[in-house]
Amino acid sequence: MQHSTGFIVMFAAAICVVCSIFVSGSAVLLKDRQLENKILDRQTKVLDVAGLVEEGQSLSRAQVLELFEKNIEAVVVDLESGDVAEGVDAQSFDQARAAKDPAQSKEAPENDAKVRRIPNQALVYQVKQEGKVSMVILPVEGKGLWSTLYGFVAIDADGNTIRGLTFYQHAETPGLGGEVDNPSWKALWPGRKAFDSSWQPVIEVKKGAAGPAAEDPHHVDGLSGATLTSRGVTHLLRFWLGEHGFGPYMAKFRGQHAG
Ligand SMILES: Cc1cc2nc3c(=O)[nH]c(=O)nc-3n(C[C@H](O)[C@H](O)[C@H](O)COP(=O)(O)O)c2cc1C
Fold first, then answer.
1. Per-domain boundaries in the chain
2. Is the minimum distance from the CB of 226 to ligand 1 under 6 angstroms?
């Protein structure tokens, strides 16, 4: 049976309309679910860097929420003063949005991590064990080679010892810069010291191999073939642990929780 050209065009147009309704309908319907999954993924990463879940362990949504609620308190801090911001709801605080809003952020000074804007306030996670803060988890971000790396660094209650580092988003090359996600490399971080004796952030991913944490506390092995990503990790940690990032908060945190 032969169809007219008009029929074929109309048929194709009708298929396009039906498909676009289907695709846009599912995007709208799944939007909340996507947001929920993003939050869950972020919470899982926080539990991961805190050492509260094993690397690669898969947890149900309920298990993540239970572990999170039991062990972690999210607080919003004022970066300039280092004080916890009273009356700001940490659950609904969106740091990425704050960093883009001129009313809630400021331009960053020239820096190696290529951070452009600094939010006035930032979200940190305090890990509580037996009623005491045992570590703090800080969000960090900065340029690698191809992309901005977004992650978390966990610092012990002593305000200096790194308990873990993890990234939840980047687009470095798998097998090269992408090795930031390699569990063997991530295992090199716990026990390293972020700061020197005058509380300057000196942690460095060096080119080549570092010694064990006890002997070479300020260095971590470089990623082979990925010197630029490695440098990016050094720069982003130093920026966010420094005076324009969480430096003032860490100074107060040490006063309250160390020892
Ligand atoms: C396709 C391709 C992808 C690369 N991806 C990365 C990367 O993700 N991170 C990185 O630091 N270097 C990457 N490099 C290598 C850099 O261009 C550069 O050579 C390297 O960082 C130097 O590190 P090395 O001194 O350890 O060899 C890539 C190179 C190529 C050709």
1. 71-257
2. yes
Q: How far, in Å, CA of 258 to CA of 132, rounded?
A: 11
Residue 126 contacts residue 136 (beta carbons within 8 Å):
yes
Q: How many CA atoms are closer than 13 Å to the CA of 58, on its beta-carbon side? A: 0
Is the confidence at residue 215, as pLDDT, over 90? yes
- Asked if 180 and 229 count as a contact pair (C-beta separation under 8 A), the reply is yes
Are the C-beta atoms of 119 and 155 separated by less than 8 Å? no
Going from the Cα of 242 to the center of ligand 1, the distance in angstroms, rounded, reads 27
The protein residue with its alpha carbon nearest to ligand 1, atom 2, reads 173
Whether 165 is in the pocket of ligand 1, judged by its Cβ within 6 Å, is no
Which of 143, 149, 173 has most ligand 1 atoms within 8 Å of its beta carbon, as the pocket-test mutant? 173
Q: Pick from 256, 258, 237, 259: which is nearest to 75 by CA?
A: 256
- How, if at all, do strands 148-156 and 162-169 pair? antiparallel
- In whole numbers, what is the pLDDT of the chain averaged over residues? 93
Flag whether pLDDT at 259 surpasses 70.
Answer: no
- pLDDT tens profile 80-95: 999 999 888 898 899 9
Q: Which residues pair with 4 in a beta bridge?
A: none
Overall pTM surpassing 0.90 (yes/no): no
User: Is 211's C-beta closer than 6 angstroms to any atom of ligand 1?
Assistant: no
pLDDT of residue 152: 97
Residues 52-68: tens digit of each pLDDT: 988 778 888 899 999 99
Read off the pLDDT of each residue in 164-169 and give the average, rounded to a whole number: 95
Query: In Å, how far are 37, 48, 72, 202 from 53, measured between CA atoms?
Result: 18, 5, 13, 28
